[in-house]
Design goal:
The structure is a single chain. The radius of gyration is 21 Å and the shape is elongated. 34% of the residues lie in helices and 13% in strands. It is α+β, with helices and mostly antiparallel strands. A five-stranded mixed beta sheet has the order 2-1-5-3-4. A two-stranded antiparallel sheet has the order 6-7. It has two domains: 101 residues, Beta-grasp domain (Ubiquitin-like (UB roll), Roll), CATH 3.10.20.30; 134 residues, Alpha-helical ferredoxin (Fumarate Reductase Iron-sulfur Protein, Chain B, domain 2, Orthogonal Bundle). Helix 3 packs antiparallel against helix 6 and helix 6 crosses helix 9.
């Protein structure tokens, strides 16, 4: 391991300002190497000490906000969880998450995902109207356990960047939006599954997924969006089969 004082590491950083650059290009920066630095620390060092024009997005630096996702040597990663030491002494190539339009440098446009969250109605649709005076909805630990894993999503978009289907068809609703739809479908307080089915069971919904599984591999929160998609496929298949049965048999 290199000593922290003298060692350096090169970051090759994607640069692009669509309004002025005809093409993206890479810019190299030599940053100090520290054993406990993550790629985000190096980017912040560049921004603070070397080149204020570099644009990247981050907030929490602790794997919670989901805003620092980028391609690190071709893999979708949270840059606040990607240590320089795992790449040292080789250069590290940092690019925006693949599959999304670039707003500037390392910042992607997430509008498409925001629209998909609306399409799948990723919010609680209560079984019946409830007044505040009725107090909180209570759930048992078992009811919470049914959906808790899917509720851990931090909207980091790593799963979209890793998904080969989304790379080819951006109409695909995609892993995180489907996992978040399942999060509510499995919630004992919710009655919105049929409303969500319109988007989820459409061609661009779960049936576009070819179950490559990369989304679950790259997910930093173990949400398992691939598992959510398979659950939703199963639910759709059961509904379809029930609809074929004579009335009263389903
Ligand atoms: S499912 Fe995982 S990888 Fe996808 S957006 Fe949510 S936290 Fe990120
Ligand atoms: S900075 Fe918040 S998840 Fe990395």
């Amino acid at each position: 391991m290199a000593s922290a004082s003298a060692a350096t590491q090169v970051l090759e950083v994607f640069r692009y300002s669509p309004e002025q650059d005809p093409e993206p290009h890479f810019q190299s920066y030599e940053v100090p190497f520290h054993d406990d630095w993550v790629v985000l620390d190096a980017l912040n060092h560049i921004k603070d000490r070397m080149d204020w024009s570099l644009t990247h997005r981050w907030s929490c630096r602790m794997g919670v906000c989901g805003s620092c996702g980028m391609m690190v040597n071709g893999e979708a990663k949270l840059t606040c969880a990607a240590f320089l030491r795992d790449y040292y002494p080789k250069p590290i190539r940092v690019e925006p998450l693949t599959g999304f339009p670039v707003l500037r440098d390392l910042v992607i446009n997430m509008d498409d995902f925001m629209e998909k969250l609306v399409q799948v109605k990723s919010w609680l649709i209560p079984k019946e109207p409830r007044e505040l005076s009725q107090g909180e909805y209570r759930q048992s630990p078992a009811e919470l356990a049914r959906y808790k894993q899917f509720s851990m999503c931090i909207n980091c978009m790593l799963c979209y960047a890793a998904c080969p289907v989304y790379a080819l068809h951006t109409d695909f609703i995609g892993p995180a939006a489907i996992a978040l739809a399942q999060r509510y479908n499995l919630d004992s307080r919710d009655a919105g599954e049929q409303q969500r089915a319109e988007a989820i069971q459409a061609d661009e919904g779960v049936w576009e997924c070819t179950f490559v599984g990369e989304c679950s591999k790259v997910c930093p929160k173990d949400v398992d969006p691939a598992g959510a998609i398979q659950q939703a496929k199963m639910a759709g298949a059961i509904d379809w089969y029930k609809a074929l049965l004579p009335r009263g048999k389903g």
